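Cytochrome aa3 subunit 2 structure dump, as promised
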Amino acid sequence: MTIFWITGIVTCLVLATLLYFVAKRRHSILGDPLPQTTTAASDRLATRAVTGAVIVTILLLFVMLISSFITSRRLGHMHDQDAMTIEVYGHQWWWEIHYPYPKEPYREVITANELHVPVGTLIRIEGTSNDVIHSFWAPNLNGKRDLLPGYTNDLMFLVDKPGIWRGQCAEFCGLQHAHMSFFTIAESKENFNRWMEAQRQSAADPKTEQTRHGQQVFLTHSCVLCHAIGGTTAGSHVGPDLTHLATRSTIAAGTLPNTIGNLAGWILNAQSIKPGCRMPPNQLSGSDLQDLLAYMETLR
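structure tokens r here:
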């Protein structure tokens, strides 16, 4: 922000000076040019102005240099502190997010395309890729880190106020690179803890005939080959974990809002929405699709 305000003010001053002299000399284009006269006093004034501008420039550059040094040092010290570790895996073209719990692995949380963090807590992102090179970029929080297959890179940041910020893959990774986004959701520690506890729960058992049939549609069609739903026999992690799908704001890595209509179109023919993605078309009858959608609405 220091660099932003310094460069912003300097830019405004330069443009204001330019506009002033353009306005002052505008009549020279239509009439006779102004006489060019110099005196010893004007030379001294010009010399002082140039000298002053050079001195101010040097001082501002030193201010930016010192500010950058202080910021870099603070970021470096983050690695010496305890931090919440979140694992991020890049896929073509979506983000798999793990909240590990080494002491009690069964308490691990797995989600997709939404990074929930508590305000005021130091976060360490440990990222890698499961296919090609991706780049995890949350521009409002910190710089980007390339995610390389077979390697793990880390990124540290701390969010100081609640909010939602969009992130993006910043390394070209194929046809749908532009549609590989995620959202960082910062909330109070109390709300974050409630979210974590809810995410640790298995999916609720279907309570109506329609949702029970919808669950069977899910478990007997190709959905079960790629997705997991906690509390059911679906345990594949080729695609996003769907245990709490209905709580997410978007589908297809930020491509569409998470609505019933969009979800129906995505299930039937994802290729028409995101060509080249790994989601195959699904041939379902109208009644099977409606029951499946009703079941997926319960995944909260």
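The radius of gyration is 28 Å.
lmk if u need the other ones
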